[in-house]
């Protein structure tokens, strides 16, 4: 069987058996199978990926100064699961491989992205500086980071599998008046 077929087989077998929320099983799962009981999002935050600065000087102008700029950025989607040493032989390396594929598949389905996927953005922005002023514009590129836990039943045990997914690509623009030098 291929790895994809093994994943489907393991998932189908595991769906036939229900583990109680208390962590026990009415019947133990057959060897080589697992059941994803629950996915819980712990926190979602924005992470700064990059910052680009653009100082614009119109101190000696008598009209508003308008400047148009194009920015490009790419970012990769990453999905990481943390396998702790407390599995105590409850799962083989093959089962852990299948479990990791299942968890990443669930995250991909939920978020609409896949690990390793490249996201690219191109934005064209207009900046304006009033006469007699200097302004620093800052373009901040961000990604969303989601931390969570999967509760997974293997045999009679329930294990917590922490995960981190970094996805998306957005930007924000901030401006800051620049002080006069020597002032």
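Sequence proposed for the structure above (183 residues):
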């Amino acid at each position: 069987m291929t790895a994809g077929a093994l994943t489907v087989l393991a998932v189908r077998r595991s769906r036939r058996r229900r583990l109680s929320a208390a962590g026990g099983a009415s019947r133990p799962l057959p060897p080589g199978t697992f059941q994803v009981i629950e996915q819980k999002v712990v926190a979602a935050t924005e992470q700064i990926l990059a910052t680009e600065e653009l100082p614009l000087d119109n101190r000696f102008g008598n009209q508003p100064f308008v400047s148009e700029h194009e920015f490009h950025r790419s970012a990769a989607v990453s999905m990481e699961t943390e396998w702790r040493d407390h599995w105590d032989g409850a799962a083989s390396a093959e089962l852990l491989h299948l479990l990791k594929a299942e968890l990443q598949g669930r995250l991909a389905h939920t978020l609409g992205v896949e690990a390793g996927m490249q996201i690219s953005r191109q934005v064209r922005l207009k900046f304006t500086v009033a006469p007699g002023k200097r302004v620093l514009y800052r373009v901040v590129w961000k990604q969303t980071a989601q931390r969570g836990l999967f509760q997974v039943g293997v045999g009679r045990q329930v294990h917590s599998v922490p995960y981190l997914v970094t996805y998306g690509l957005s930007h924000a623009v901030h401006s800051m008046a620049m002080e006069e030098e020597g002032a």
